[in-house]
Amino acid sequence: MDRVRSNSLDEKLVKLLDDEWQTAAQIQRICGGETLEVAKSLDRLWEAGRIEREAQEIGIGARRKGGGVQFRRIRYRQGSPEPR
């Protein structure tokens, strides 16, 4: 994706986000576009301090028996991020 199109997508995503936490998949369904490009744009916006990101580890399955897996849910929203 060229720089002009990525900047355009960045601005579109900033306008779509509000104070409600949403996953990248939820945001992609609202705005359309390629899933990978939306995810890259969200990461760019977070790194620039324009949006907040929350990462949460969720254990799934029987962890006590050595099974199960860790699932990482990442959500985004408009707002001022905490210092990293």
Question: Would you write up a description of this structure?
Answer:
- This protein has three helices and three strands.
- The protein is an alpha+beta fold.
- The protein has one domain (3-78): Orthogonal Bundle (Arc Repressor Mutant, subunit A), CATH 1.10.10.
- It has a three-stranded antiparallel β-sheet.
- β2 and β3 (69-78) form a beta hairpin.
- α1 (3-16) crosses α3.
- The longest helix is centred in the N-terminal third of the chain and has 14 residues, at 3-16.
- The protein is elongated and about 50 Å long.
- The mean pLDDT is 86.
Topology:
Blueprint: H1 3-16, E1 22-23, H2 24-31, H3 35-47, E2 51-60, E3 69-78
Antiparallel strand pairs: 1-3, 2-3
Helix pairs in contact: 1-3, 2-3
What's the CATH topology name? Arc Repressor Mutant, subunit A
Shape category: elongated
Distance between the termini: 28 Å
In percent, how much strand structure appears in the residues?
25-35%
**Based on helices, strands and strand pairing, what is the structural class?**
alpha+beta
CATH class bucket? Mainly Alpha
Number of helical segments? Answer: 3
Spatial strand order of the main sheet: 1-3-2
The CATH architecture term is Orthogonal Bundle
